[in-house]
Amino acid sequence: MDKLKLLLPLVVFGVFSCSGKQPQVDGRTKALASPRSLVVVYENDVHCNMDGYAKFAGLRDAIADTADVLTVSSGDFLQGGAMGSISRGGYVVTLMNAVGYDVVTLGNHEFDYKIPRLMELSDSLNAPIACANLVQKGTSTPLFKPYILKQIGAKKIAFVGVLTPQTLVGESYAFTDESLKTLYDVPAKKIFNLVQSAVDDARKAGADYVILLSHLGFVPPVSSVDAVQNTTGIDAVLDGHSHSVVSEAFIANANGDSVLVSQTGTKFLNVGVLDITRNGIFHSRLIPMDSIVAVSRKVAAAHDSLQALVAADLQKVVSNTKFDLTINGDDGKRLVRKGETNLGDLAADAMRFSVGAQIGIENGGSIRVTIPAGAVKYQDILNVMPFANGMCLIRATGRQIKEALAQGASKLPEESGGFLQVSGLRYTIIVDAKIGETPRVRIEDVQVETGKGFVAIDENALYTVGLSSYVAYEGGEITAFRQSEIVMDKVMTDSEAMVKFLKSQGSEIPEIYRKPQGRIVVKYKEKE
Fold first, then answer.
1. Is 493 helix (H, G, I), strand (E, B) or coil?
2. If pLDDT is split at 50, 70 and 90, which confidence band does 2 have?
3. What is the distance of C-alpha 454 from the center of its chain?
4. 380 with 337: CB under 8 angstroms?
5. Stretch 389-407: mean pLDDT
6. Distance of CA 342 to the CA centre of its chain
């Protein structure tokens, strides 16, 4: 404990004093004076890093020895690893319940298992969910409470939740019923009004402070900075979504008042600690997970119990590789969403051969992590493909295939989860980048593999394509195949397709996959 206190100096303790009636919360009267400081311990974008929860809770418990503490999440906890995939989020909820969260908000990946499953998991999750801008289609009626009011020491803190509108693109399939009728919405144009309304209502309900649990990040279409600049009454933003590491930043709101913004990164790289002084001053800091020594025995036991349930299956060896199967380029930066990688080639080949198609396609956003050299275990495959997307076989015209390639490349030179890795195809992307203007992107020289080699694709011919249901008709980035004939629908998951393909290759990944195979060429033409 002494080491932990040296590592985590808390703000100077203060005593609150005021007069009048004592506030009532949940029927319990709280004393207006408290010698303890106020602390919020927070995380974002954990993405199924189950190993971190015991230390996260251990740090929280250590701080709670001398402070009043609340524990919160800014979303993206249900998906991103094998434990989430095999339980469709259930094991994650079990572990979060062991931690004992006070409030969480939703990230876009909470929708990966679709909204009916999200509602089941929300019923199982002990912590309340705050989300101001997930509404029923055509209304402003929220599915969850826009804010949650919590008592901490002598103060009431309201937590308002906000979700990125990008969810409607990346997880569009989650918002429809079986007939593809849209039932829910995350309206971008109303986002500031919905957040402001929640903040105002929280203040009317007696909130001394308002904290925005944001899953917006520092990226379009609406950032956490935009949310601050277009609202008033928010004291701090605990952010997520962009996986940024921001210990503490201050942004002026619509009235010019300073608002703290913080984000911890991803996968428990850091744990956030927000201190609130007796004068209402907010200060945040990030504690590297590697430096935390405290461990919650309760959470560690729950973690070990879950691991024991699935260890045997997850550790089964599917194949072996003498080289990294990577999502990155030679510079170590992520490339799979804007260029070809060897793991992209392997994934696209799995899409193709698992359903016997002429062409295979996999979007870069569904290829999540690198597989290091060595034994390739079932857990590695689930970490790469955690979404459990269904495998499909469709018939598409050459014109539809070219349109899909263009849609996938349309965001270049920026990343896009819709960028398409291919098998049985090769193509060239030309990016005309004129200074001061939006780049123009076009697709050229699309060729399809035949028994006689590669030939130019015929726009009017029909080709069979193996791909995920996400790319075929569920996702928002690629819409070119919406009118294509579905020959086989969701016959297996994409991870099962990968396992099937790897087993067909023998006990070792073939040497041909050591480097990208030149299926995708990206040319940048800069103009003055």
1. strand
2. very low
3. 38
4. no
5. 94
6. 23
Kindly report the pTM of this predicted structure: 0.69
* Location of structure tokens 């601050």: 228
CA distance 363 to 336: 9
For 146, the 3-state DSSP assignment is: coil
Q: What is the pLDDT of residues 153-206, one digit of tens each?
A: 889 999 999 999 988 877 777 888 777 788 899 999 999 999 999 999 999 999
DSSP state, 418? T
Using DSSP's 3-state secondary structure scheme, residue 480 falls into: coil
201-to-151, 206, 207, 397 alpha-carbon distances in Å: 16, 9, 9, 53
Dihedral Cα 244, 250, 253, 259, nearest 10 deg: 100
Give the C-alpha distances (Å, rounded to integers) separating 38 from 16, 153, 258, 281, 504: 11, 7, 20, 11, 57
> CA 139 to CA 162: how far, in whole Å?
17
For residue 345, the surrounding DSSP H or E stretch is: helix 342-353
Strands 209-215 vs 155-163: parallel, antiparallel or unpaired: parallel
Q: Which residues pair with 180 in a beta bridge?
A: none
> What letter does residue 219 receive in the DSSP assignment?
S
Rounded Cα distance, 172 and 214, in Å = 20
227 touches 210 (CB < 8 A) = no
Q: Which two tokens stand for residue 136?
A: 């029923």
Which helix H or strand E contains 90, and what residues bound it? helix 90-99
Sheet with strand 462-468: strands edge to edge = 420-423, 359-363, 462-468, 391-397, 485-488
| DSSP-derived secondary structure for 227-247 | HHHT--S--EEE--SS--EEE
* Residues near 249 by beta carbon (within 8 Å), at least 6 away in sequence: 260, 261, 262
Single-letter amino acid, residue 447 = Q
CA separation (Å) from 20 to 14, 17, 23?
Answer: 20, 10, 9
Residues 6+ apart with CB under 8 A from 100: 57, 71, 126, 127
For residues 360 and 467, is the Cβ–Cβ distance under 8 A? yes
Q: Report the candidate in 43, 97, 50 with the shortest Cα–Cα distance to residue 74.
A: 43
Q: What φ, ψ does residue 108 adopt, rounded to 5°?
A: -60, -30
3-state secondary structure of 225: helix
Helix (H) / strand (E) containing 85: helix 82-87
